[in-house]
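Duplicate of #3305? Posting structure anyway:
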């Protein structure tokens, strides 16, 4: 019987968890075979429009991360041994020969990628691009962002391209390297191994040296050199740079026949796999194969998620929270309407309710009577989308999916967890809420020799947090009819 290395030693690590909505510095302490998380510092993060472009406020982000690390060092009972950084996918910074920013980092929702998918198809087919990278063609992919910069003076001045978490690592330790899981979101990495695809880079007229080497998650980058950590020996570990890969690393898995749903602004439905799913059927379904910890893949589907509800919430005159919104929709009532969250109307609309109305009109559906009905349509349609993609993943893998792990902010919603269980007809295990931070800490622990392996790390998570199981309720005729309607809208 294996014994966790952490059982004999108390230690702490710092996790920098960067989300598109907020950035947090978390202190993770392991003692008595339990992982304790404490939020040390949080700042809101939002896309800023500067000179007509959607950008990130990178200087504020850097300043606040350094402040948070300093606070975590002061707060920690034991001297932290390491720090790791994870973030959302695809976005990057451009550095000149002196390591300075060439330009303000542009956010993935910026309109510079409009028309780039079509332009790319004149250079390489979607099918070949998918076969070479395992990554599906989403308009926000790094590939299309860089295509919009092809042969530009901005790119000519660029000496190094680093993904957002890798740039923060570079500022912390001075080591410039792109980590595999975040690099895989670019649609420029070979589907096997950790090399950039030479044909794709040729089509972009991009020198491979600007992207540099790709390193495995868990690689030690060196001692943190910022003044805030000058008094201690703090190692910078390249954890899974992509936050969803950290989330999956922290799943408290018992039944191997599972799928995961990461419920946030984006909802992600996927499985863990030893191989990529790169059939033409997988491509047409929108499956993308991002990398996971331990030489694994995460075949998954990105779905416009709680963004639907966040957008509707903005249009409410009263300032209410999600709990109150769920109270509005919790009373069972038959509805006819349904949407496909994948429809481009919902990607970045000026007004979410207007986007719903445009979709209803486009598909010949009547408009809902009350605002709460829009909320119900959003919740139910998300669940229908989960069920559809879970069933498709079963078909593609030939493996039965028996349980769903629901993680992220959405896992705190009892209404959503129960709705997913009922509409997807499977048990839903909710938690941990702080999956990305926990996965970040686990990978640091393995790299620093404090945790034996991923299996032991997941066991540590299960021992450390409350997980709840929701079993399916009875599904009404109306709900099943609306699911069939959803399926007709998908085709």
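Output from current build:
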């Amino acid at each position: 019987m294996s014994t966790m290395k952490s059982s004999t030693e108390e230690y702490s690590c710092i996790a920098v968890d960067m989300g598109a909505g907020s950035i947090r510095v978390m202190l993770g302490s392991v003692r008595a075979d339990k992982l304790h998380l404490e939020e040390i510092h949080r700042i809101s993060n939002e896309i800023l429009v500067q000179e007509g472009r959607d950008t990130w406020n990178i200087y504020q982000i850097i300043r606040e991360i350094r402040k948070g690390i300093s606070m975590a060092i002061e707060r920690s009972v034991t001297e932290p041994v390491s720090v790791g950084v994870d973030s959302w996918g695809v976005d990057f910074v451009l550095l000149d020969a002196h390591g300075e920013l060439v330009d303000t980092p542009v956010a993935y929702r910026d309109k510079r990628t409009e028309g780039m998918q079509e332009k790319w198809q004149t250079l390489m087919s979607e099918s070949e691009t998918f076969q070479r990278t395992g990554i599906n063609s989403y308009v926000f992919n790094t590939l299309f962002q860089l295509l919009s910069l092809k042969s530009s003076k901005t790119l000519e001045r660029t000496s190094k391209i680093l993904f957002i978490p890798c740039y923060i690592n570079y500022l912390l330790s001075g080591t410039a390297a792109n980590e595999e899981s975040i690099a895989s979101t670019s649609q420029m990495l070979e589907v096997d191994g950790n090399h950039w695809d030479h044909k794709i880079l040729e089509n972009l007229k991009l020198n491979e040296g600007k992207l540099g080497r790709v390193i495995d998650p868990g690689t030690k980058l060196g001692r943190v050199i910022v003044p805030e950590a000058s008094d201690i020996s703090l190692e910078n570990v390249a954890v899974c740079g992509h936050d969803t890969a950290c989330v999956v690393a922290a799943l408290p898995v018992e039944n191997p026949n599972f799928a995961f749903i990461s419920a946030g602004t984006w909802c992600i439905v996927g499985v863990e796999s030893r191989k990529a799913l790169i059939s033409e059927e997988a491509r047409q379904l929108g499956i993308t194969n991002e990398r996971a910890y331990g030489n694994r893949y995460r075949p998954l589907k990105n779905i416009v998620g709680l963004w639907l509800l966040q957008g509707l919430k903005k249009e409410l005159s009263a300032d209410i929270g999600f709990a109150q919104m769920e109270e509005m929709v919790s009373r069972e009532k038959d509805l006819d309407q349904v949407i496909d969250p994948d429809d481009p109307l919902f990607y970045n609309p000026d007004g979410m309710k207007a986007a719903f109305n445009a979709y209803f009109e486009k598909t010949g559906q009547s408009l809902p009577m009350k605002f709460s009905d829009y909320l119900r349509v959003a919740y139910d349609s998300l669940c229908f989308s989960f069920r559809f993609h879970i069933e498709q993943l079963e078909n593609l893998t030939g493996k039965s999916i028996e349980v769903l792990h629901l993680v992220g902010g959405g896992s705190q919603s009892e209404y959503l967890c129960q709705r997913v269980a009922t509409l997807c007809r499977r048990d839903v295990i909710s938690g941990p809420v702080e999956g990305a931070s926990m996965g970040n800490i686990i990978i640091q622990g393995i790299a620093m020799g404090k945790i034996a392996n991923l299996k032991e790390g997941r066991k540590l998570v299960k021992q450390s947090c409350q997980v709840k199981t929701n079993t399916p309720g009875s599904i009404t005729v109306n709900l099943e009819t609306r699911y069939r309607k959803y399926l007709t809208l998908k085709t």
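Confirmed duplicate; merging threads. The mean pLDDT is 94. DSSP finds 19 helices and 19 strands in the chain.
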